[in-house]
Design brief:
alpha/beta; 2 domains; 6-stranded mixed β-sheet; 7-stranded mixed β-sheet; oxidoreductase; Aldehyde Dehydrogenase, Chain A, domain 1
């Protein structure tokens, strides 16, 4: 059984049965059988299904949001926004997906070549708890549009959300087997990856989980997409609007109680404006109102579990032992996984802790002498997922966009995923891309078809 614990109260909320090995086998067989037909479905049928799923999510926004808040503690306001993003994601692929699948004609010796996109089969998704709907939709919408079918292994904390997604898809009229939730523990993933009927795997999670899944997929010679950890830099230069930058930095750091791979974690500020920015930023973090996530007067709810909260607090002790100074970042008394927002200063740049990801509502604050040093600090970690740069100097913008080692750079804004743009990282933040046309094509076979033709001319 899986037991859902409300992190705001620390009390059990609901229990969900775990699938037996035989039941998992039946799900895989069903996915394989469904794929044989779904791969041949017209693009219009796939688009129509995505629109109906979007409609179901939209109609159930309040229920879905309340469930996410109860299972992992995000504020009800942010949970509603997450559901709305899912609706947008389904509708984006419903509209743009058919065009992304159109064949491309090329000149070729003796005739014409066509590059055509074809599905590859059942895709296994191993997903985390921090965005329990959107993380799944990022894989599911392009999977359906591609003509593949999906198998989900969701986090133990959010089994209610996983079942709700399956319910939305079923109620939208999807053929049985197009999407199935597999209520299993992490130990069951290896057998699924090794199963010849499973074509590919996508994972969002920790470095350790990514390395394990990549190794398993490599042994099976299967395509894998990994979206792993991040310690995103948030760079502020003298030409920036400091009020806007400081306000955005607070928003970036406390969204989802700091439990987001792409929220700004390391604030790197030019020496000329360091003191002015630090004053604004620390004041903003001190003012963050923490409490019941259902109460919309609160800025931040609990972390996802007491265990996650305590792991962050233990990590902060190691920062202090290395010489850093902590303002805030304290455990709140009483029930639930609550802590205050915090800021770490004087973090030794060469220390081991400075290279780690802080998955909680505490920021590291660094001083940089110039753009060169800001880029050095930004890149001096094993991660390369996202980044945010604040400058009104066009040359600086281009320099940061070119030289920051990351899959994504946001200029004068908080980085956020969007259905239209590819999402992913480099270095130990993973490889491959979700979203956009690139996310649709990741798990497809780009097939070259050589066609005869006397003229060799390329058609429209």
């Amino acid at each position: 059984m899986f037991t859902s614990v409300n992190p705001a109260t620390g009390k059990p909320a609901a229990s969900y049965p775990k699938l037996t090995d035989a039941e998992v086998g039946q799900c895989v067989a069903r996915a394989s059988a469904t794929y044989a037909d779904w791969r041949l479905s017209p693009h219009t049928e796939r688009s129509d299904l995505l629109r109906r799923i979007a409609d179901r999510f939209e109609a159930e926004t309040d229920r879905l949001a309340a469930l996410a808040t109860a299972e992992m503690g995000k504020t009800l306001k942010s949970a509603r926004a997450e559901v709305a993003k899912c609706v947008a994601g389904f509708r984006y692929y419903a509209q743009a997906g058919p065009g992304m699948l159109a064949p491309v004609r090329l000149k070729a010796a003796g005739g014409v070549a066509e590059a055509r996109w074809h599905p590859i089969g059942p895709v296994l998704a191993v997903m985390p708890w921090n965005f329990p709907y959107w993380q799944v939709v990022r894989f599911l919408a392009p999977t359906i549009m591609a003509g593949n079918v999906g198998l989900l292994k969701h986090a133990s904390l959010t089994q209610g959300c996983a079942l709700a997604i399956e319910e939305m898809v079923r109620e939208a009229g999807a053929p049985e087997g197009v999407f199935q939730n597999l209520a299993i523990r992490a130990g069951g993933v290896a057998a699924l990856i090794a199963d010849d009927r499973v074509a590919a795997v996508t994972l969002t999670g920790s470095e350790e989980a990514g390395a394990t899944v990549a190794e398993q997929a490599g042994r099976a010679l299967k395509k894998v997409v990994l979206e792993l950890g991040g310690s995103d830099p948030f760079i502020v230069m003298p030409s920036a609007d400091l009020d806007a930058a400081a306000k955005a930095a607070v928003t970036a750091r406390i969204q989802n109680a700091g439990q987001s791979c792409i929220c700004g974690k390391r604030m790197i500020v030019h020496g000329q404006v360091y003191d002015a920015f630090a004053e604004r930023f620390v004041a903003g973090m001190r003012a963050v109102k923490v409490g019941d996530p259902v109460d919309e007067a609160n800025d931040m709810g609990p972390l996802s579990s007491v265990e996650q909260r305590d792991a962050v607090l233990e990590q902060l002790e190691r920062f202090k032992a290395a010489g850093a100074t902590l303002v805030g970042g304290e455990r709140l008394p009483g029930e639930g996984a609550y802590m205050t927002a915090g800021v770490l200063t004087d973090v030794p740049i060469e220390s081991e802790v400075a290279k780690e990801e802080l998955f909680g509502p505490v920021a590291m604050l660094f001083r940089a002498a110039d753009a060169d040093e800001a880029i050095h600090i930004a890149n001096d970690v094993p991660f390369g997922l996202g980044s945010s740069v604040w400058t009104n100097d066009e040359a600086e913008r281009e320099r940061f966009a070119r030289d920051i080692e990351a899959g994504m750079v946001a200029v004068n804004q908080v980085l956020a995923s969007t259905p239209e743009a590819p999402f992913g990282g480099v270095k130990r933040s993973g490889h491959g891309r979700e979203l956009g046309a690139q996310g649709l094509h990741e798990f497809m076979n780009l097939k070259t078809v050589m066609l005869p033709g006397a003229s060799g001319e390329v058609g429209d």
